[in-house]
Specification:
By secondary structure, the protein is mostly helical. The chain has one domain. The chain contains three helices and no strands. The longest helix has 23 residues. It is globular, with a radius of gyration of 13 Å. About 10% of the residues are buried.
Length: about 80
């Protein structure tokens, strides 16, 4: 499997759309740089308020993809 990591430091909504279109929504995770003071201060609401992402895409980015990734990783460690 090839891994791609993208950080959206500018939090431009056009960039999140590009990433979802090019990489597929099932490979996009939301995160923060907490406690560092860089990036979006409220990344969850930023995703929730991003127009042109469906509710399903938002749920995937905010929770489902992380749950799937970490569950898979935990199985490999067991």
């Amino acid at each position: 499997m090839t891994a791609v990591s993208c950080s959206i430091f500018s939090y431009q909504r056009s960039i999140i759309h590009l990433i979802v279109d090019r990489i597929r929504v099932d490979r996009v995770l939301s995160g923060s740089d907490y406690p560092a003071d860089i990036g979006q201060p409220d990344p969850v609401n930023w995703i929730r308020n991003t127009p042109n992402l469906s509710s399903e895409e938002k749920i995937s980015i905010l929770s489902d993809n992380s749950e799937r990734l970490f569950a898979s990783s935990a199985k490999e460690l067991a």
